[in-house]
Design a protein that fits this description.
16 helices; mainly alpha; about 45% helix; 3-stranded antiparallel β-sheet
Length: about 425
Amino acid sequence: MLHIPLFLLAVNAAAAATAPPTPQEIVYQHVANNANLTFQPPSGFLKYPYLIPSGPYNQLWDWDSLFMGVAMFEFGSAPYLAGAMANFLDHTNLTNGQVQGCLLPTGGTGTIFHAKPVVIQGAWLASSYQNGSGAAIHFKQFQPQMAALLQYWSSNVRTDAKTGLPKWYNQLESGQDNLPLSQCPSSRSSCWNVTLHEMKLVSADVATFLYREYQAYSLFNQKWADEAEEDQQVRVYVKESKRAETMANNIKQAMNEHLWDEELGYYVALNTSEAALKEGTEVIRTRTDVMGFPLWSSIPTAKQAAALRVNLLKKDMLSKYGIRSTSSSAAKYNNKNEIFPYSNWQGPVWVNANAVLSLGLMRYGYVKDAVDIAKRVVDALANDLNKDNTWHEGYNSDNGGGLAAKGFLSWDTLVATWPENVAKGVDPFELSSQH
């Protein structure tokens, strides 16, 4: 046995103690120290505890809550994620399925026309993490609201008749505020024309989210069936669960039939306006991060996933600091430091999109690539802390500089455990009865 002198062990221990923290240690500690800044007690219109992004934001936001809630489970976020989703469900109109995507204790802000289809999956993930607390059973009271939400997204208003896929109200509703998939982002733009731009965009992100919503709703119904005492209740829940599975599968098939472009090797978007149809400009081929979102839910085939990997890792998409929101070869590509009238998704790196793509690549066995993407983003955020002692909403994909919303603490919290998760092959967003 090799004998190491005690004094050498002491020297090595001292050196380790004085070594500067790694980028991963820096970002983890920042989340650990500040997680509670995002936790809010019930207040006014919001009857349940909820999450806010901190920094310049004090509102309850739809997908922010999903991402940061899951990211900070080990720091105590589970009841706040559950409460955030309960607040959205509590204010879902049972008649038409309407609920805004940005709420305050005083009510809806009007910023987001409708909450993204992430509410049911957020509720399921929070319930799964709180296994044994009866959380899933608690959400049974909101079964009518969940059904109303899904009915809203499958209505003629929100569904493209040709493809059967859901449409965004505008680009702002998508959360990728001015991503150049839309000719005009929102009514905040001088170019906005209701006839040309409202409810016209079919893209892979909204379809992926809705696919996951149906999966989560199916899992809830399975759980409720297991807990039901009457045979009639069991049959109702089982039937709902199977119906939701069918709806999810229909979305998956439609995405691969109508959005996958074999020649390009990625998912395209569609402009469904009559003008685009007449002009032959219906297909939107702009390369953006959205093209890879279906990886997150195992929607592509293995062959499609391989093609998506190639496209996502090309130089125009993958920068030193992570995957760009928009290809550097696109006409609208820029890294403008913008937050009003909307945040800039025409080039900067965004943490949540990178996490979705990284976890998606991991699902198909591209673990090395997934870890590399995570490390690039972690390094960028660690540098931001070293420079400004805080985080920003987005990051310049050319130089890594922080952009807008100084003090932002939302989906950037994903970096605390993301690299470790992908290295282990773990997706904390996986929808499973065994989560």
